[in-house]
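During the reporting period, our protein records have gained a structure token line. A sample record is set out beneath this paragraph:
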Amino acid sequence: MNLLAELSALLTPNELLQGKDIPERYYTPYAESPLAAPLAVARPDTLEKLVSTLAIAHQSACPVIPQGGFTGLAGGANPSPNSLVVAMERYCGIEEIDTAGATVTVRAGTPLSIVQAAVAEQGFTLGIDLGARDSCQIGGLIATNAGGNRAIRYGVMRDQVLGLEVILPDGTLVSSLNRMLKNNAGLDIKQLFIGSEGTLGLITRAVIKLYPALHTPVTCLLSVANAENVTALWRAARTHLPDLLSFEVMWPDFYQFMSSRMPDTPFPLPAEDSFKVLLEYASPIQTAEDLQSALTDTLGAWLESGLINDATIASNLDQARQLWHIREGLPMDNLPALLNFDVSLPIADIDPFVQRCTSQLLNTWPSVICLPFGHLGDSNLHLGISLNQETPNEAAQMAVCELVYRLIGEMGGTISAEHGIGRYKKAYLHHSRHAPEISLMQQFKQLLDPSGRMNPGCVL
């Protein structure tokens, strides 16, 4: 029997999509045009069917592309015409919330927002949150080691996972659903799969840490004169605001661009030549009213010392959402041939990198638009770069990528803070990893997937 015949015998017509029955969403990356459709899309709803699906694909030597919410920006879940997409959307649900141990056991296809809501009902919060919460899935977050907006407080996804279950490329099930904070029984195997982008196996279930539920966050927007003061403000915020949740920085060009492209959104601080810092914090003990009172005193001291130039505190959730809406930078998506960069550098080197990168871009492409923003406190910088040309020039875009990633390497940063390497950053991996590191990655890949069928072309 061939691959499709065996899969048809295993899966229902709703679980196996073929040919014209495959919706475009399975081969259309976020904010991109559709690719070629895969050979088929398998959507099993049980663990047994997932194991059998991978075993059948292994026996048929068919490439397998694991797919979660398909919200990544590095092409890590992009299928090829001869591949089998294994979509996890139907293998979803929360299996257990352990209130004594403060953990949740969840299936990989569960959207992040569903888990957030479920644990909130039990008095807990997750340590991970990001804008794609309604569509991204737990398995994909683990596979890409997502960070999001709360990393400065709770860490990245790698810090949240206690236990993991995966299916190896040949269909072998490895279940290590540990629920203890301390477990030093040999090598921590789960860490091999966190951030591996589906190249070593298919993540099926996870045990994730929980934290005490937070009261409504307090959100404020600050105006800061220069990059040095932004760094000093980060240190001060960590010292004086122990419940700090988010520390988001918008460079002057970013904020000015947004103010000119979002006429229906209130901008509470003028778009002057200064940095804007979106600061959010929340406590499991103190209410928003108590925190806001303390914040008012802190902001007053910062204003008096010259650390900040101006400040506004959101008085309700709608105003807080408006501030976050500015930070999300959605008008960038309308720029022609936009290139999104998600990189990381030591905090002290972030603004020097921005200045060097912008200068070098302008020297070659005088009409370039470069919009920097990011989390900063967790070293994460985003760059939206457009050559501002209606007709995309692929060679020029590749030159921009090489310029950015080469400079990242020279300054000791990494070409991927979130979203992984995928297919789009594979050619630039050497800017962040030395040859022995890449060789070790290749050895792990060879050990677990000697035929190279699991998400081929991704990362390595």
The longest strand covers residues 202-209. The chain has four domains: 3-87, 94-212, 218-330, 335-419.
